[in-house]
Please model this.
Amino acid sequence: MSRDHTTTAFAPASIGNVAVGFDVLGAAVDGLGDRVTVRAIDAPTVRVERITGPQADDIPAAPAQNTAGAALQSLREEHDIAQGIAVSIEKGIPLTAGLGGTAASAVGAVVAAEALLSVSLGPEALLPHALDGEAVASGDRHPDNVVPCLYGGLALTQSVEPPDVVSVPVPAGLRVVLVRPDGTVATREARACLPPSVSMGDATAQMAHLGAFVAGCFRDDLALVGRALRDRIAEPHRAALVPGFADVQAAAREEGALGCSLSGAGPTVFAWCDGAARAEAVREAMTAAFASHGQQTESWVTTIPSQGARVVEAG
Amino acid sequence: MSRDHTTTAFAPASIGNVAVGFDVLGAAVDGLGDRVTVRAIDAPTVRVERITGPQADDIPAAPAQNTAGAALQSLREEHDIAQGIAVSIEKGIPLTAGLGGTAASAVGAVVAAEALLSVSLGPEALLPHALDGEAVASGDRHPDNVVPCLYGGLALTQSVEPPDVVSVPVPAGLRVVLVRPDGTVATREARACLPPSVSMGDATAQMAHLGAFVAGCFRDDLALVGRALRDRIAEPHRAALVPGFADVQAAAREEGALGCSLSGAGPTVFAWCDGAARAEAVREAMTAAFASHGQQTESWVTTIPSQGARVVEAG
Model:
């Protein structure tokens, strides 16, 4: 392998939990993502070479603390890969925004490395290493962003060991609104505010919502999806971390969103909408609601792509 | 209406919870059920006229304590029905067996009364009254037997007020084994042994199982259904109420059952199987396992009918 040989993967942002499936459901989103480039190096190690993007300085460059670096270390170790790898990360996903940025860097790194090293592992074999990478940022091997980023689409994780990922059909015409206010929520902090248990009533109600949601997606029944798209597990505890959340959610619903909740741990808030026109109106309403709480925002109207992280350049 | 006018409904037995959906999922079963006959009477009241079947003496005959009687009282009250109704119940479903017997009598009564009175209410309007009936036996308005008995098929209840019932497709070739050991489990007792809350990990794992189960049913993917058909919510606490349960479950799995758990609160144990031949082998293995614990059993191999309770005789 020549020293100039590089491979770049694009790894999409993702919505963790998607309201209805705390810790087990996630959705990739189109058009927003990290670009991760790997390069063969002589030293038999993993090196984080370059991190670019607006918040690059906030990302740890030590390989064991960097989600891309740690994912590559895990990959090399398990598969006895002698080849050293340098990784460069072009952050397209805002940090600690609830958009799966740490997961995307980890997933992008292993997907790019798979191509660089010409080892055909496939998503099931890459998953544990991406989870190892994600764990250095979030403190645990959470699948809700890693899985949709790696597999694409709307993905339900029944098990990570062994991987058992269920792809759920995305309803036709679905548009996703993402509105990110200023401010950050650290995943660890957002986890710390959750209680260790849930009431039997909340657990069974949430189970019913997730089951109904999956049925609605298979039937392409957006009315059913809308009745199911709610969160009794995490949102009640985390909403307070995002100033104005209740008003933003109410505004989205008043404009006809199917559902609206925190993207992952927040502060980004997402809404699911039937069609692009509705989505634009919902985006405006959500943005205005944040503004009334003095929050500047960045926002997107996007879709859920069927494809996850993929190699975009090799040479 | 002539005093001789009667209507009889057949109301099927049902499997509450179906392992994966505690309190929110249920399945009707074919060939086993109660027959409930209603008759117009002069007195403006509800009267329980006759209860037949092996355990008839154990069923309260006071209308307010009888699930059929209470359901009819609720129906008359809400819809200002002056006509008095006498109800007779032919119990085909064993009592306190976990087969939805109390729910079937309540559902059969309201379905028969709807026809007798020529009021076209439909399942959504009948549901609250059947739940009122069920509540006098189980202490609460649980939908997990009432809903599949009324709607038929495999039914997920997202909400009872207003009714939001999601019909889940039954995989092709599915056979259901039911094995009922001697002994009874009272629903109230089985509820009392459940903790008021579940750990976050169990709640999210069970959510993933239910979501995966629904996806497996829509895809007709019995392997996925088999990986999902498990219960971390109720079974761990209730298994001890059924002597030999662990061995029966292990025997079913060894014979290739997709899943095996308590039917409702038990003691009946159900298994889902791919095809009739497998189901017969599983039934034998489960029966033998109960026998090795000194338990005599009654057993069935059946299917999940798409139709729920229905009028079978009117005249």
Notes: The longest strand of chain B covers residues 25-41.
